[in-house]
Design a protein that fits this description.
The protein has about 200 residues and is an alpha/beta fold. Helices cover about 25% and strands about 25% of the residues.
């Protein structure tokens, strides 16, 4: 016989926070939207004249909107385990929000665009300085030259333990695989025995 009371409140699910970061126009909003089980919260606004001379549109000239606060999505893995995804703004002028968004994060996905690889250096530096585990997910744009993950890792001067994966931020299964890689990476780091 089950000794639990049927009117007992259900336990609260474990909430896991993951950041999706990277340069301007790399696909953060797209990735969060493609994997979220809910309609994602987006704080996109039209690019305006205020960004002229401030925002670097090289390589993303057709982009007309930008995330000004964050993107938010959710994935329920089990009844007792929920992933919350927070897409960070990519432009320097919105970086003041990163510290708040990163608070309590399990880890981060740094999206990279090989056409503008240097744009992900600030994200990599941010997470390295704060010792937040991260993976690099190379968003394979149709018009970008393809590089192997080890070539990207070398170009970014990453340590051998930082995973680099290729992805298509538009595809749910690809985004899911990126998140699995991040969680596995975090588990490896946290279960290592000290030397």
């Amino acid at each position: 016989m089950d000794s639990r009371r049927s009117d007992a409140p259900a336990s609260m699910p474990l909430a896991v926070k993951i950041l999706v970061a990277g340069g301007f126009g790399v696909g953060k909003t797209t990735l969060v939207g493609s994997v979220s089980e809910i309609q994602p919260l987006r704080t996109e606004e039209l690019l305006t004249e205020r960004g002229v001379g401030v925002d670097d549109l090289a390589g993303v000239e057709s982009k007309h909107t930008t995330t000004v606060a964050m993107d938010f999505g959710r994935i329920t893995l089990r009844e007792d385990l929920v992933l919350y995804l927070f897409g960070t703004p990519g432009q320097d002028r919105f970086w003041f929000m990163w510290d708040e968004l990163a608070l309590g994060a399990l880890g981060a996905v740094v999206l990279a665009d090989t056409r503008r690889l240097a744009d992900c250096f600030p994200s990599v530096d941010y997470f390295e300085r704060r010792r937040v585990p991260f993976v690099i997910a190379v968003n394979c744009f149709d018009d970008a030259v393809g590089y192997r993950p080890e070539e990207v890792a070398g170009a970014l001067a990453l340590g051998p333990d930082v995973p680099v994966v290729l992805c298509d931020a538009r595809r749910r299964d690809s985004g899911r695989d990126v998140l699995i890689t991040l969680v596995e990476h975090v588990l490896r780091i946290t279960t290592r025995t000290p030397v």
